[in-house]
Amino acid sequence: MAESENIVAETAEKIFADLADAQTINSDKNGSWKAPLWQALTESGLPLSWVPDDLGGSGASLAEGFSVLSSAGRFALAVPLAETMLAGWLLAQAKIASPEGEMTVAPASPRDRITLNADGTLSGRARGVPFAKAAKHIAVLADGANGLSVALVDAAAVRIEAGLGLGGDASDTVTLTNVTPIAIKPTPKGFDQTALMLMGGVARSLQIAGALESMLDISVRYSNERVAFEKKISKFQAVQHNLAKLAGESAAALAAATSAADAIANSTSFDDAFFLEAASAKIRCSEAAEKGAAIAHQVHGAIGFTVEHILHRYSLRALAWRDDFGSESYWAVELGKLVADRGADELWPLVASR
Amino acid sequence: MTAALRFDPIRLPPECEQLRKEVRQFLADEIAAGTFDPHQPNREDTDAPEFSRRVGERGWLGMTWPKKYGGHERSFLERYVVTEEMRVANAPTRRFFVADRQSGPVLLKYAPEHIKMDILPRICRGEVCFAIGMSEPNSGSDLFAAKTKATKTDGGFLINGTKIWTSSAHIADYMIAIFRTSPPTKENRRHGLTQFLVKMKQPGIQVNPIGQITGQFEFNEVVFTDYFVPDDHMLGEIDGAWKQATSELAYERSGPERFLETYYVLTELVRAVGPNPDTRSAEGIGRLVAQLHTMRRMSVSVAGMLQAGKEPVVEASIVKDIGTIWEQQLPHRVRDLAAFVEENATNRETLENQLSFAIKTAPKLTIQGGTTEVLRGIIARGLGLR
Q1: Interface test with B, best of A275, A347, A350 (most B CBs within 10 A)
Q2: pLDDT per residue over B260-305, tens digit each?
Q3: Phi then psi for A214, rounded to 5 degrees?
Q4: B290 touches chain A (CB under 8 A)
Q5: What radius of gyration, in Å, describes the C-alpha atoms of chain A?
Q6: Half-sphere exposure of B10 toward its Cβ, with a 13 Å CA cutoff?
Q7: Which one, of A295, A278, A288, lies nearest residue A322 by Cα?
Q8: pTM score of the predicted model
Q9: Which three-class secondary structure state does DSSP give residue A284?
């Protein structure tokens, strides 16, 4: 994506290229790459991209933040940048200032609920919370007697059971038992858990699309290097057609994710057309992750199945990201219900609304 | 990065929304008047000359062409809206669709002025039907193996040979065809073919209908026997058709007709399922709608890039590759879900009839206008693999 005017994305891309090179990270057995990377990101203000200046952030636009996430996907970034951005964004919805350091959001699944008790404390359990163990704070969406609230919670005040997602990144279970939040405020009108899940889903969609771009890139490169049966495997039609299919899946993911991001960046309300954009992105990008990762591995053969090779950094993360903020089958059911409820003759007007 | 695929999030401009309303109203009026049945894609005769003229009267043919040729100088995105609304309504576009999408633009680019002045306004009025003469009995995807010969004679060329799978040749007024004017060279096997404008319904041309597995007769065999084409009907460079074929393909490949051919079965499924679907139906419909939405976003994106003067050849090929496979699979996925529809659903029979037709239509979708294999070859070339 050549968005030359987008300084924020270029800054991110440069930091990733310098400090998050897949090969370097893959050979680094003690995780020494993490601290300098996070420090550089923090110094550039990227983790709080979506937090306005007066709430402690760098006040970038939604569109600029989305392009950072695309780039993060292309590098299969394994630090909680997307999560901190989402947490800052969620806190900003309720005008709560963001603290420094890593954050994540809870719930991260549409089925989990966190409750705001009558005494002002929070209780509940959220599964599959990305990078909870690494987070200093958690932005929580809680359901109370008077509606929804956003709360800033100290990660030390909750119980975290460590878990691992497919990609090897933390995917933890967070349990809150009468936790007193650092700050809590009601959500603005019209903001609900679905809105949070769709925003998280679009973030993951962009990351998946980015990872697919890289999978296509390294698969094409590998096929032009690897020789079998006395020629480059890129010269075999079967391999060419597989890579063309991978390009198609990558293209579909890119189109769905950037369209949904654009819809969020330019919309003022969470209407049906917005829902179609965001849910479709998560569904289609997840499908693309499955098909695309399979082809990328097929092209690489056994070498791509090894820990030493970088392919798994992209393929397994793309597959893992399908699970966060509602899986594709969850969103498909929700979208199907919406379509059925609108009725057959309202399907095309919905699809053709933009 | 080797692959720089672009699919910018293009939105249709505001003028498209007014136009869309007008097209929907026009189609609703035509349906009310009995011109066509939107629930019945399997028509005996998809040719509708009067409808074609009325579409022309509305200014919806030659939309992007210069006004001096009867065009309307509107954007490709506006044309996109008209095309998709017609397709979704199952409107009988056969008579004008090829001329509007493909033949007109070729004439605009390569025909002499007096021919442009003669034919283009008639296309815009919906009066003339075009066919495309590419495939031959022994050359399909391998376009440059064409053998039908154009031999130089006084004031023109004599054509001898056979074109095949020529859609609409039986109703067409004109054909744009490629004929062999020279043998291929050692260096360039694509050399030696020339594009011509052919007037149909003349002596020397015999059109033989070919039945299709859907029960329709849309394509034909067209036999040329000493058929005379005047010199001024040659389009572009002699022996150089191969240079002219590529840039138009982006238009041909990425339009809404490349994923909406069987769309009607999805609408009908949603109707049959009703407002309270079970989980299986909801999930199935949700996935199909997400895929459809994504296809349309990709296709609109390519239309926007074309409007901006870019040539997204690889992107357009990707749209056709995954779009045609999607519309091919759609009736089968709808069939899966239809198995659970209530026996007494009011549109059950309509849905079953549509499915039967769509499933029979499906095989052609990944063959016509560039097979999946050819498209993947183009994509592979774009990726730097060949």
Answers
A1: A347
A2: 999 999 999 999 999 999 999 999 999 999 999 999 999 999 999 9
A3: -70, -40
A4: yes
A5: 20
A6: 23
A7: A288
A8: 0.96
A9: helix
